[in-house]
Structure formats: structure tokens, C-alpha cells
Write a structure and sequence with these properties.
With 267 residues, this protein is of the alpha/beta class. The protein has ten helices and nine strands. The chain has helices at 2-12, 43-55, 58-64, 90-94, 110-121, 125-140, 158-164, 168-180, 203-210, 238-249; strands at residues 70-71, 78-79, 101-104, 150-153, 183-184, 189-191, 214-216, 226-234, 254-262. The longest helix has 16 residues, at 125-140. The N and C termini lie far apart (56 Å). Bound molecules: zinc ion (ZN) (2 copies). One zinc ion (ZN) is lined by residues 72, 74-75, 77, 88-89, 91-92. One zinc ion is lined by residues 72, 74-75, 77, 88-89, 91-92.
Length: 267
């Protein structure tokens, strides 16, 4: 009976792609192939593949996930070609971060940029959750996901929280934690003063803007743990770097970063 009702609902309201709104044609064989292929047999990969299949049309999914990319090992920036600097972009060659490495779905441009703007400006929860699922899938292919003890998000000042009422980074972190079966700890970090929007500042002012803007709220319980810190976009990396500094000072072993998009000038 439930199956009939479900089929009827699908017939009357066919599922639509969360990005382009085109109708998703049901298929008996999964259109989304987990990559690398050897990971496809695990339950969590089958689950995420099924979730992605249900919410993205084939072209959008291929555009966002199923493509060969060369990325900077440190900051997750998508490189145009094999860098002469090895697996580092020019930015990371000059700068050293306190986090171990960052992973993104791609650079902040083209369709990914439009999706992030839509997610933030329209407070689009279904899209945010599906971008979180894409990020979870991307993280499954990383070498560090199994070492993560807990997942948290870049915190927002209470005043901005109140004004917006929507926390994209927190929703992304919660989704990634759920799909990767890791502990979601939204309260370990606090933003203790209001900061200017990083995107409005010159790159030289960004580190100063976030200096001492955050604090760890659970001292003593973070000794030796590995944390995955989630945000929507990483541009200069100043915010996640400052948070990594205070987490490491609180005893955290390693900080990894997961973002939807890597912004700024990358090469
Ligand atoms: Zn689509
Ligand atoms: Zn880099």
C-alpha cells in the first residue's frame, strides 16, 4: 500500500534536480558511479550514491563530481594543469597553513559559484543538504576521513545568526557528519566578536580581521582528537587557519577542512 502511494506521488510530483529543476528520470541502474570504483561496494557509498541519484540530474552530477581534477594537496584548489610546483598551488607554495589539508568540490566559479550564492542568499535548505552530500562523497575518497573523530562548522557571531536565521556551514557539517557516521559537535567553537565579511577586505587585512575572533568552548576534551572543520567557501584561508590555531592550542591533533568551494586566485 505504501509502495503504491509512493509510486502515485512520484507520478504526480516527479522528482526534480535540485540544481536545474529538470525532471529526474527513474532508472533501475544507478547513474551515479562512486569513484574510485573500489569504494562503491561499501554501504555508505551505496547510500550516498542513491541520495545523489535521487536529487541531481545526470548532467549536473557529472559536472560537479564525475570529472578528473588536479587539485592542490593543501588547500583543495582546482589547478588548471599539473603545477610545476608539484601538488601545491602557487598560493600554498608561499604560505603555510596550520590545518593539515583542505578539500573542496571545486573552485568558486561557474555552476558551483551559482549554487553557493543560491544556497546562501535564498537560504535554500534542500540544496544545502544536497551540497553537503556531495561534499561527504568527496571526503569519502580522502585518505583522512576514517581518522576524523568529530565534525564541526566555522561558527558565526550570535548577532549574525540572529539576523540570518540560517547557518549554511552548520547545516553542511551536520549533513557530512550524518553521512560519514562521525560525531557532529556544533558547540565546540564560539565566535566571540563580530568580524567584517572576509570577502569585502583586502587579502592583507583578512588575518587581522579574524585574529582572536574565535574561542574553544570545551577545553580539556579535545586532547589528541582529529577534527574536520566545515565551511561553505574558503578564500584566503585566514578564517580556517585562525580556528585551526586555537584548536591545536586546545590539544587537537590535526585539523582538516572541508568546503564546498575554494575561492580566490588559484593557479
Ligand atoms: Zn540538473
Ligand atoms: Zn593550494
Amino acid at each position: 500500500m505504501l509502495e503504491i502511494a509512493s509510486n502515485l506521488r512520484t507520478l504526480c510530483f516527479p522528482p526534480r534536480c535540485v540544481n536545474c529543476q529538470s525532471e529526474i528520470v527513474p532508472s533501475k541502474t544507478p547513474k551515479f558511479q562512486c569513484r574510485p570504483a573500489q569504494l562503491a561496494s561499501s554501504y555508505k557509498h551505496q547510500r550516498i550514491a542513491s541520495l545523489l541519484d535521487d536529487h541531481w540530474c545526470d548532467p549536473c552530477l557529472r559536472n560537479l563530481v564525475n570529472r578528473d581534477r588536479i587539485t592542490c594537496w593543501t588547500c583543495g584548489a582546482e589547478l588548471n594543469q599539473q603545477s610545476p610546483l608539484g601538488r601545491k598551488c602557487a598560493f600554498c607554495f608561499k604560505k603555510s597553513f596550520r590545518f593539515t589539508r583542505a578539500i573542496s568540490l571545486g573552485n568558486y566559479q561557474g555552476p558551483l559559484q551559482k549554487l553557493v550564492i543560491r544556497m546562501k542568499n535564498l537560504h535554500d535548505e534542500p540544496l544545502t543538504i544536497q551540497l553537503g552530500n556531495l561534499l561527504a562523497h568527496r571526503l569519502f575518497t580522502s585518505e583522512f576521513i576514517d581518522s576524523i573523530d568529530l565534525i564541526t562548522a566555522v561558527p558565526t557571531h550570535w548577532w549574525r545568526r540572529l539576523k540570518r536565521g540560517f547557518q549554511a556551514a552548520e547545516m553542511l557539517a551536520e549533513t557530512v557528519a550524518r553521512e560519514s557516521n562521525r560525531q557532529f559537535s556544533p558547540d565546540i567553537l564560539k565566535c566571540q566578536r563580530s568580524t567584517k565579511k572576509q570577502g569585502t577586505l583586502a587579502s592583507t587585512s583578512r588575518e587581522k580581521n579574524v585574529q582572536n575572533a574565535f574561542r574553544v568552548s570545551r577545553w580539556g576534551s579535545l586532547q589528541g582528537v582529529n577534527i574536520l572543520l566545515i565551511d561553505d567557501v574558503m578564500t584566503s584561508g585566514a578564517t580556517v587557519n585562525e580556528i585551526s590555531r586555537i584548536l591545536l592550542r586546545a590539544g587537537v591533533e590535526k585539523v582538516y577542512v572541508g568546503v564546498i568551494a575554494r575561492g580566490g586566485r588559484v593557479s
